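Quick one, T. Sequence first:
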Amino acid sequence: MITQLTVQAVLEKAIEKEIESQQLYQNLSQKMTNEAARNAFLKLSREEQGHEDLLRKYLRGELGEGGLKKEQVLDYRIAEHLEPPAVTPSMGLKEVFLVAASREKASHEFYLSLAGVHPAGRVRSLLERLASQELEHKRRVEFLYTEVAFPQTDGG
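Structure tokens:
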């Protein structure tokens, strides 16, 4: 089912998801005993905060020309991109990294789709940059997944 949403509603939902990602990564960092994993999640949390800040600027109209009007209606299946898998307390580290990678993939696809409805310009470039950063987050989390799922042995 396609839901009609305004640009404002999409931005508010994106901000909500960025905040959820920040909290998830902050919580995961506190549970990590591996320092590299802890630092990776802290960095991801800070970067998601930066995304939230940029989206809030867009919502306030502070990004300049190239932005869509907040009341403009978009036909967009937002739930397809923003429904992450459920996180449970009993998840193993490997599964946690898979959840994080899934979230980052969905965010990447969301920002690419949102950029696609914008005219060329500053806002479109910003959304494309956010998409690229989310893809980099996915790459980092997948690297951590491989470190846990396929640990090196002393024999190489």
